[in-house]
Amino acid sequence: MRSVPEIIKNLIIINLIFFIGTLVIGNFAYDILALHYPKNPSFGYWQLLTHMFMHGGIYHILFNMFGLWMFGSPLVQMWGRNKFLFYYISCGIGAALLQLLFYYFQIHAVVDNLLSQGYLLDEIYNNVLPNKGTYFDSKLVGASGALYGILVAFAFLFPNSELMLIFLPVPIKAKFFVPIILILDLFLGFSSYSIGPIAHFAHVGGAITGFVMLWYWKRNQFNNKRWN
């Protein structure tokens, strides 16, 4: 761990503290810190930040922290602590916003259908949606959106580095690897083939946010400048 950049080490420690805390406190921690749909009574603006330090299980946090260490470390070495942290948090928030937008369209379709059946709007949000099993009660957790932003930055800065998928142990250059997994996320997000409750559009949102920031930085000639 002595060779790990301090900011990466601190982020991993914070994530572990949150994870252990959820094991101790239980579902109450998810009610407060996971990201809820804005019209849900449990929603809080702080959740746009706190949700990216929450995780749903041991494999979830291990995979994300491994990715943070592996792909985030070279970015910190190139950018410095402050710039990396700004980028990381921005990608996490961008990921959450796109996932919430997806929730909005899904929930809006249900609301329109219920309104056509004669339900009142207050009745829908207070009584019907909470018991209908929709995205209205979803809890978004994880650093995956921010991690996808990091993957985009890694591919942007180290395009010819070779990476491998766990289920496809064939070396693929980063400039091809990242688009492949993004296309896969889009496919799974729009289809019914997703394995488990994965927020695919959060992944895409983090990647898009990261790409826009990198494009802006490159255009303004400070993509590789350090902020500290």
Largest sheet: 2 strands, antiparallel
Radius of gyration over C-alpha positions, nearest whole angstrom: 19 Å
What do the pLDDT scores average to?
A: 88
Top-tier CATH class: Mainly Alpha
Shape: globular
* Helical residues, percent: 55-70%
- Biggest sheet, spatial arrangement of strands: 1-2
**CATH fold type:** Rhomboid-like fold
Keywords:
228 residues, mainly alpha, Rhomboid-like fold, two-stranded antiparallel sheet, 2 strands, 65% helix, globular
Overview of the structural elements:
The chain has 228 residues and is mainly α. Helices cover 65% and strands 4% of the residues. It has one domain (6-219): Rhomboid-like (Rhomboid-like fold), CATH 1.20.1540. It has 9 helices and 2 strands. Helix 7 packs parallel to helix 9 (200-219).
Topology summary:
Elements (H helix, E strand, L loop, with lengths): L5 H20 L1 H7 L13 H4 L7 H22 L1 H36 L4 H8 L15 H14 L4 E4 L2 E6 H17 L9 H20 L9
Antiparallel strand pairs: 1-2
